[in-house]
Amino acid sequence: MPEALADRRRRAAFFLALPSLVVFIGIGFVPLALVAIWSLWSFDPDTYWIKSVWSLASYAALLKSGRADVLLQTAGLAALTATASTLLAVPAATVIGLLSGRRRATLLLALFTIPFFTSGLVRAFAWRLVLGREGIINNVLMSLGVVDTPVEWLLFSDFAVVLGMVAAHLPLAIIPIVLAFARIDSSVIRASQDLGAGFWTMFSSIVLPLIMPGVLAGFLFVFVVAIGTSMEIQLLGGAGASSIAIMINDVMRVVNFPLAFAIATVVTILLLVVIIVADRALELSRLFEDRGA
Amino acid sequence: MSRIRPRLTRRQLVRRAALGAGALAVGTLRLPRAAQAANEVNFWASGTLDIGDDGWKIFANDSEVKVNFTDNGNDPGPVVAKLAAGNANDIYDVGGLQGGSEKELAKRGLIAPWDLAQIPNYSSVWEWAKNIPYLTFEGKVYGIPTVVNADSMIALRNRVGNVDSYGVIFDRKLRGKTAMEDAWINSVIFAAIYLKNSENAKISEPGDLAADELGLVMEFLIKHKKDRQFRTFWNGWEQALQLVANQEVWVMTGWEPIVYAARRRGLDCYYAVPKEGYEAWSNNTILLKGAVDRGLSKTAHQLANAFLSGFYGCKLGTLRGYVVPTDNNVAYAAAHASAFDPAAVKQLSEHVKAKLTGKVYWQNTRPANFQLYEEWWQRLRNA
To answer: What single string gives the DSSP state of each residue in B277-316?
Structure first.
């Protein structure tokens, strides 16, 4: 009785998924919904608390004091970081996932994840010693006679921020691509070679389309993390450089919860839109397809 | 015949694992404060007021008050918020806060007035320190001035020579080589002091700007930020020190101990004497209402008294170059010459006293337009 069997399987799948579903709703969806609801409440400076008076004041405040600009700038920086990380991650993941044996691949993957072992603060601070006026790069450039005076824009600039963020988040882009490589059936590659395809033809026509969901996942991982980062921007950005996270921190300092929640809600919606559009355009969900079926 | 059974069944294992995980989770939660001894005080103050475990041990021996120190982050905004809308009054007994917030905290009933009769050492506090604005509300003393200093600029002599005006911070010739602190409580007053005294701006009290005065000062700072005058806005003592030590910044507004630390690294830097005047500040000890409710008022007074008794001033002076505004420090150092250098304690005391008896403007962490200050500072950041 195949229908009854399928029904039983569906029921079993539902009950197996139930704990995860409860956890997802409890610690994922409910807090986000509350944040969205509270963003529409009012801040009472007399009690330092929110009151259940519905208002769009926090969303109006988003358009003041340069906050909208910071939202766009942070999204731009995050997109730039994610793009740079992905462009670097593709060749790195190719070496790991396509051109290395198991042992070397493990070693290389471990090397790329080293940035995760150090604190973000120390990592960002270390860049100051490299990029600063008296830093390693400027010293080398000056001793080689390439420049007469230190290059000022190396530090406390968008360049420094993107460099710091790429170095910190690169593994997030590499790992999904390596996983995508692991899902490629080696017979496909062998077949292309048997048919006379050179490396670049094989890579561009066979491998790249197959790893595209991994590339997209890597881009999104970096984008999502970078859009919420503050460390690199605070330590490596220009005077008083701001970001979404810094802006939220600023308004939380004076416990203006509705405004902080409004910023968080807008960012969440932005990220959801990015993920949905990316999935529609490049079929991110292919990464989770069962190739064996 | 007995059956061979596993020592631990799977069900037992799962149950014990769950119990263990639960116990671990409970252990990591912040539970309500444990019972506290009558001579024990939870002191919630700026990190720079911490004298370390060894220091607090001697302090406890001398004063019979055991101090549990917690850093409050030194940012009065969140401190006031945690007292008003959080549980800070349930956890802490005595606070140490940059001056200015006392009035608001007192008005809201979040702090209690000190009974000066229970603080005999208060009589030794320098007279001008007793008259620091913001210490009192409705005739009662809410803040005991515990640490005082006057701030200006840190300058690298080999880069900028001898400077005596905040104008150097905004000097076009030093574009990209100056910095200010990433905090309005210090940076706004510095800019206001400069504009008032050197640019003849209509500013009556740099520590408590009216809305239009604040707008003038902030537009001035925003213009210079956009012109890339500032290399960065520094945040935290270590970062500030590194900026100077690496000569990333040649002159910046900042705290005097940074100069001492930079000199120890061999840098020729100095603390400028600005013709416009110093930004004076005091970190005041406040009695949290929760301590009174818990019957710890007497111990809290004992603590405030002990801060002024000499040892704390000597220790803090040695550690950070800060001064407790009483001559008891000098007397304590003279009586304990093996522990502290009496000449150094006296010199530091005289140095700070001389600065504070000159032209100063007092830092105010809670000006009347506090919310506007916050809004403007965010606008500066976002500019």
So the answer is: -EEEEEEEEEEEHHHHHTT-HHHHHHHHHHHTSSHHHHHH
